[in-house]
């Protein structure tokens, strides 16, 4: 009899635990972004000759996040994202009688964002709509080409040039459950680099979230 009561109590406890929603969720996202920094170089009238430094404004961004629901209205999150902007270069010239040619070459600029953010629902009547504010640390990796008396192909990053900045971002997100634990959504963020006092990028990404 005691064993029967123990088994019943154990089953009820497991059912209660299974029905209790976890406070954690994970998200993956991928979409488009516009990077203001990659168009900021002056390539015209350089004393060192011709340079290819700028990349296309529109690029891609993708990442993953883990979110902790602190209350029914508010959550905290950690995130990593990587954005990529490219530019296709074709160019030919002659330096001291030597032909120099660049054919269909893709220059690349990458940002790696490490983020901490606060997320809150706009209201109880709109639980699917949330806003975000957060801080980020970013490291850059950028490819550059310059052609003058010589030809230089370079890739600058944190390791060889200490390319890093810090800033803040704001965002808005809408998501809809398609299952008890899975939600599809879309969000937009605006990143501002405080250490350089300039707008960095704006993003628009579909999201897939799993609520434990």
Structural topology:
Elements: H1 2-19, E1 24-35, E2 50-52, E3 58-69, E4 74-95, E5 98-123, E6 126-147, E7 151-157, H2 158-161, E8 164-177, E9 182-193, E10 198-211
Antiparallel strand pairs: 1-3, 1-10, 2-6, 3-4, 4-5, 5-6, 6-7, 6-8, 8-9, 9-10
Salient structural properties:
212 residues, mainly beta, eight-stranded antiparallel β-barrel, 2 helices, disordered N terminus
Summarize the structure.
The chain has 212 residues and is mainly beta. 10% of the residues lie in helices and 68% in strands.
Termini separation: 36 Å
Main sheet record = 8 strands, antiparallel, barrel
Classification by helices and strands: mainly beta
Mean pLDDT: 89
Number of strands: 10
Uncertain spans = 2-19
Written as H for each helix and E for each strand, in order along the chain, the element string is HEEEEEEEHEEE
Strands in their spatial order, largest beta sheet: 1-3-4-5-6-8-9-10
**Which band does the percent of strand residues land in?**
over 45%
Number of helices: 2
- Rg, nearest Å: 24 Å
Query: Can you tell me the overall shape?
Result: elongated
Helix % is 10-25%
Write up this protein.
The protein has about 210 residues and is mainly β. It is about 10% helix and about 70% strand. It has 2 helices and 10 strands, in the order H-E-E-E-E-E-E-E-H-E-E-E. It has an 8-stranded antiparallel beta barrel with strand order 1-3-4-5-6-8-9-10. The two termini are about 35 Å apart.
């Amino acid at each position: 009899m005691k064993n029967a009561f123990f088994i019943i109590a154990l089953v009820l406890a497991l059912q209660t635990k299974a029905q209790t929603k976890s406070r954690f969720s994970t998200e993956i996202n991928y979409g488009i972004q516009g990077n203001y920094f990659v168009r900021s170089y002056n390539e015209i009238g350089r004393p060192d000759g011709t340079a290819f430094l700028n990349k296309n404004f529109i690029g891609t961004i993708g990442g993953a996040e883990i979110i902790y629901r602190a209350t029914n209205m508010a959550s905290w999150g950690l995130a990593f994202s990587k954005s990529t902007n490219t530019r296709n270069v074709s160019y030919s010239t002659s330096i001291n009688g030597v032909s120099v040619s660049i054919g269909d070459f893709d220059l690349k600029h990458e940002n790696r964002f490490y983020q901490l953010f606060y997320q809150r629902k706009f209201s109880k009547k709109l639980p699917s709509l949330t806003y975000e504010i957060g801080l980020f640390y970013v490291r850059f990796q950028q490819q550059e080409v310059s052609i003058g008396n010589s030809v230089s192909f370079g890739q600058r990053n944190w390791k060889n040039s200490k390319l890093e900045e810090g800033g803040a971002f704001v965002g808005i997100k809408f998501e809809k459950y398609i299952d008890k634990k899975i939600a599809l959504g879309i969000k937009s963020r605006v990143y501002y680099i405080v250490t350089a006092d300039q707008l960095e990028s704006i993003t628009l990404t579909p999201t897939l979230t799993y609520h434990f």
